[in-house]
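Researcher: Quick sanity check before group meeting.
Model: Go ahead. Protein one:
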Amino acid sequence: MRKSHPIRRVVLAGAATVSGIVLLLSLKPASDPASASAAGGAVPPAAAQESAQGGAQAAGTSTSTGDAVQTQYGAVQVRITVAGNKITKSEAVQAPQGGTSTQKTELAVPKLNAAVVAKQSPDIDTVSGATYTSEGYKKSLQSAIDKANAAASAAQPSQGASAPAQGAASKTLTGTVAQTQYGPVQVRITVSNGKITKAEAVQAPQGGTSTQKTELAVPKLNAAAVAAGSADIDSVSGATYTSAGYKKSLQSALDQAGG
């Protein structure tokens, strides 16, 4: 039998060692955390992009909470979320609770929230069976919108030349409270470029037949004020006292606007 040469055994052993090292290197995972980090792997850029998107959305979104409005059955307070000059969300942070009030709140508030986002204004319909909650909701909503507009006007100088001009041409004025035989009446108007673009009653007689008369008269008076551009409007038949109080408060608001 031939004996293996010692040098040949050394060469074969070295070749086996090199082959083993090459095999181990070929099996090393490609997803080494250190190498992925050094090379700028896919996960960190994706996370950075998500963070940037969230930051941009937060910068363009703001919330505004209206004043708490006391009603016969409890306080109502509304918070709105505004993005891109639009109301994207409306919610009641306070609403009447207890007994049937809880049921009425659960019925009315979701409808009111949806109506605000749909119409983009407090000029929304009262929910049947929840008149007091609806009226309180609309008053607090108007307060929230006023605060949001004020904040936007304060921020407008840094947003371009055209936005401040629009803000300067439009303003909201609230007349003094006019006491009537059946309750107080108070009117708020929006004036743009010297014209009444909106009129609404922030207070009006409520309770019993007064509620019915208010719901009948106020929309007509609001429309008449915008159409006439003054307080020289006709009284609504069957709501003489409310009409008279409305016109007095309207005139007060016009006086503040300079006639």
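Researcher: Fine. The other one?
Model: Protein two, sequence then structure:
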Amino acid sequence: MLSRTADHLFWMARYMERAENTARLLDVNYQTALLPQSQEAAQNGWKGLLSISELTSDYLKKHGEITARDIMTFMVSDPNNPSSILNCLRAARENARAVRGALTTEVWETANQTWLEFNRVLKDGMLERDPGEVFEWVKFRSHLSRGVTVGTMLQDEALHFQRIGTFLERADNTARLLDVKFHARNTEFFGSGAGNEGKEVDFYHWSAVLRSVSAFEVYRKVYRNVIRPEKVAELLILRAEMPRSLLHCMNEVVSNLRAVANDQSHETLRRAGRLRADLQYGHIDEILATGLHAYLTQFLDRVSDLGYGISRDFLMPA
């Protein structure tokens, strides 16, 4: 496959996944901001969201003051924010258009329709009326895109590069979500210690986190007990059967990388395999003892390095 074609397919999938994960990050912050808490705690939650998305300086240049409404507008519909959902959907559509011949009609029409309808959603004022509805819409369109891709594309290199882009982006965003939401509670992972009221707030906080990654029912099925922060971390980091966990994402990245391997990709495949092995044989107690923030920061660095290696080995030269 031409590196230019592989590049467009990789980034088409990655931008669509990024749009969905931005919607998930905003949704969980929007939901947890409705919980009983001090204004400072709510403000810290939004600050953490900007920080983990690496958008703090860009946001402050434009808005100065941190408010929930401005942050949602900035991350959803700001045409000058390269990471906004608007720009992610535009980029996904433009990458799909560039390789129209490598896609099925259904995949192209889904990407094109998503872009056109999202503009109508914004003009209709849905973001101002009900932000949660916009986030659900974005997630649904991403699910639709992924389902159409897997259901209609030939199982060849084109699909493999899309899957690599999807799961590399998902691993990055799951790690960011975990990091920002554990920081938001500012605890030692076991609740606020403020009696029953604190435990109740913790329950709703972690429920919102689980729902943001479609894992609330999965958690109940796997653990069958009260929601505990360390179990939330274990589910989203180490459980291979959880579709958005770090281990599941790396399993997919490695298997698809192996399917497209070439003479110069041995080192990239080795690094991906090493990262997967660390997750596969990891234990949540060791991770928490080391420090979850440090662990996730290192993971994000390794995923970024992996993305660079994939670009160097397969995609268009920068």
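Researcher: One line on it for the slide.
Model: The chain is about 75% helix and 0% strand.
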